[in-house]
Structure formats: C-alpha cells, structure tokens
Give the backbone structure.
Amino acid sequence: MHQLTLAGKTYRSRLLVGTGKYKDFAETRAALDASGAEIVTVAVRRVNIGQDAGQPNLLDAVPPSQFTILPNTAGCYTADDAVRTLRLARELLDGHPLCKLEVLGDPTNLFPNMPETLKAAETLVKDGFEVMVYCADDPIQCKMLEDIGCVAVMPLASLIGSGMGIVNPWNLRLIIDNAQVPIIVDAGVGTASDATIAMELGCDGVLMNTAIAHAKDPVLMASAMKKGIEAGREAFLAGRMARKYYSADPSSPTTGLIGS
C-alpha cells in the first residue's frame, strides 16, 4: 500500500491512535496492538509520561522503543500554552522533535482556534519541532500551515469525540488536491466505514481515539479500524469506476451471446 512518510521516517500503518479514555494502560496496549498503529499520540497535560514520578507511566506500557510517541497539546487554548507544553514533552522524550499541535478555541465543541494555531506552529517550526497540526477543514488555512513548515496537516472530519464521520468531504478533497505534505484526518471518526471513506478520498492517514476507546469492545474496534484503513487505501490506489447516472452498463457483454 506504499508506506506513509512523516518527517523523513516511513511507517507501514496509516492509522494513528490516541491513548486517552481507556479503562487502564493494559486495555490501551491491547487496542494499540490490534490496530497495528506505529504512531501513538499522548496528551501531555492528561497522561503521565514522566512528568509525575509518583504515578504509573504510560511509557511503561507503550515504550518508545516499540512506538513513535506523538505528544500533543490537548487542553491548550493559547499558542503560549501549547509551545510550553511541547517543550516540556521534548525534554521528557529526550529531544524527540515530532509533535502534534492543537490549540482549542472552545471547551464545548473543541473546535480549533486557528489564529493561535498558526502562531504556535510558526514558533514551534522555528524552534526545531516537526509539527503535525490539528486544524479546521479550511483549504486556505491548511495551505498556510504547510507553508509555515508543518510536516503534516490534520483537518478535522467533524468535532472531536463526536463520531459524526466526515461531514464535509468536498473541503477535504480541496485540501488534499492542493497539499504537498501528508493530510491526515484528525477527529470525528466514529466507525470503520468513516476511516475507509477518508482513505478513499485520498487522505494519507487517519488519527483517532474516542472511536476505539469508547466502543463496546475497544480491541475489536481497533482491529476493524485497521482493516477499514487498509481497504480505503487499496480502493483509492485502485481507482474507482466512474459514476454513471441514468445509464446502465451490464456486467456481461452484449455481443457474442450464446445462441445468437
């Protein structure tokens, strides 16, 4: 299926998975294994990766030797807070530069604050971070983030945790068609068919958390998401047949029929 390349490193899986909302670290690890994900995102403000020495450490269950850890700024509402959070994460992860930036604008709908996101992205890129950035599905602002130097642009499919799927596929296509960096859908996926649709549109990958963690069987849903991503990617590469409205096209030939 061709490998996903991010910041010069290649990955077999195009599914990126979050680590929040599971009942415990054991379930987190079981879901990750079932998903096949190699990139695992961690909310630095909510999950211990070493900043609290007296608490269980996620990295014991999800070691950096086996996964690429993607620290994120979930819970940040200003560019300054996001930058501080990722500088702390870089220290905790021994200089690891890859990160996921998100600057939220509203605590109810968790929609991104794009002016603050652009400001933070510019600061972080100048500071040597490899920035993957959660953003609105706005083709103009996505291009601005690419021009700043982000290594991947991550437009939402729908609101974080909503499970509403892809509500605006046309914007995603505009973003994909104009991008020179990977476009990864981030937020809103609810089930495997949502992930498949994202990949059929031409997205380079999908990041999800709630859709797996809040499923009745998170481990089984993680396996389903893996298959959905793979099916969507193969369908995109295969190239779907053209839609033909008002014109039937029989599967069998109409010439050379038996007995004619």
